[in-house]
Amino acid sequence: MDINDKSLDNVNSDVAEWALKKEKQIRYLTDLENYRRKFVGNISHELKTPIFTIQGYLHTLLDGGLYDEQINQKYLQRAVSNVERLQNIVEDLEIINKLESGAVELDMKSFDIKELCQDVIHDLELIAQDRDISLMFKDGASRAFRVTADRENIRQVLVNLITNSLKYGNDGGKTKVGFYDMDEKILIEVSDNGMGIDEQHLSHLFDRFYRVDSNRSRSQGGSGLGLSIVKHIIEAHKESISVRSTPGMGTTFGFTLKQS
Ligand code: ADP
User: Fold this and answer.
1) How far apart (Å, rounded) are the C-alpha atoms in residues 141 and 144?
2) What's the pLDDT band for 223 if we cut at 50, 70, 90?
3) pLDDT-based confidence at 156, cuts 50/70/90?
4) Is 193 touching ligand 1 by the criterion CB < 6 Å?
5) How far is the CA of 211 from the centre of ligand 1 (A)?
6) HSE on the CB side for 77, CA within 13 Å?
7) Cα–chain-centroid distance for residue 5?
8) 229 exposed, middle or buried (CB, 10 Å; 0-12, 13-18, 19+)?
9) Which atom of ligand 1 is nearest to the CA of 210?
10) What is the pLDDT of residues 104-134, one digit of tens each?
11) CB distance 195 to ligand 1 below 6 Å
12) Residue nearest to atom 27 of ligand 1 (CA)
């Protein structure tokens, strides 16, 4: 190599460029490390509560509670509910892990979103009846609304949004699903007349493990991951999701899909 080919100025700028590139790489790796640390911290925190609760019930049963007719059934049932909670968390973690690793390939097909929604409503009918909440379509849903999207992933979106409307809705309330034709896109809205969400929480709602009322969410078996899964799926479709809410009045989540 002829070192005379390069002026000192050139070498200097090469070194500066190299340093900048390295600095960016280091920043990226530091962010990744922080993100990983936070994620692992969140997961262990989420798992700890049900594990301790199950441990508590089982120890009480072993220490003689098993023979106490007043509590044995009740404590076993509570232990089972907490095992179900653990299961929900692990299932949601698996989904989010797949979505974030980019391993999900969308199976884009044309289908009627209204028919899919009808299916989901059917599956959730028992939970809705439990809370005495009516699940229905808004006016204007008498025709088909064909979209191109990954059907199974969109099913998950609808299940999470409608389940939330039941978890955070009022007994005797209403959940309505509406479809709006916006030329190239269909807007799908899930509205409830439940407890609503204060404005200060709205921008964090789709963050992993974010909850407005942790006690209520946990008592309903929530993992705090439902809405971040929804956002990942909608973003993978290169579409958008939004929320509007009035405390005490209700909440509406809306997302778009490509019309076909
Ligand atoms: P979770 O498992 O806690 O339900 P989500 O990610 O699905 O987790 O939702 C995050 C938080 O957003 C919930 O804990 C709840 O406080 C709030 N939330 C979601 N949907 C609604 C709704 N329809 N009405 C009121 N609050 C809601």
Assistant:
1) 7
2) confident
3) very high
4) no
5) 6
6) 5
7) 58
8) buried
9) 10
10) 899 999 999 999 999 999 999 999 999 999 9
11) yes
12) 168
Atom 14, ligand 1: residue with shortest CA distance = 211
Mean pLDDT of 241-252: 97
Could you please report the per-residue DSSP string of 171-205? TT-EEEEEEEEETTEEEEEEEE-SS---HHHHTTT
User: In the prediction, which pLDDT does 1 show?
Assistant: 54
What does the alpha-carbon distance between residue 106 and residue 150 come to, in Å, rounded to a whole number?
6
| Structure tokens, 169 | 């809705």
Compute, in angstroms, the gap from residue 178 CA to the centroid of ligand 1.
Answer: 20
Strands 146-150 and 185-192, bridge-based pairing: unpaired
State if residue 251 touches ligand 1 by the CB under 6 angstroms criterion. yes
- Closest protein CA for atom 4 of ligand 1: 222
Q: What pTM value is reported for the model?
A: 0.86
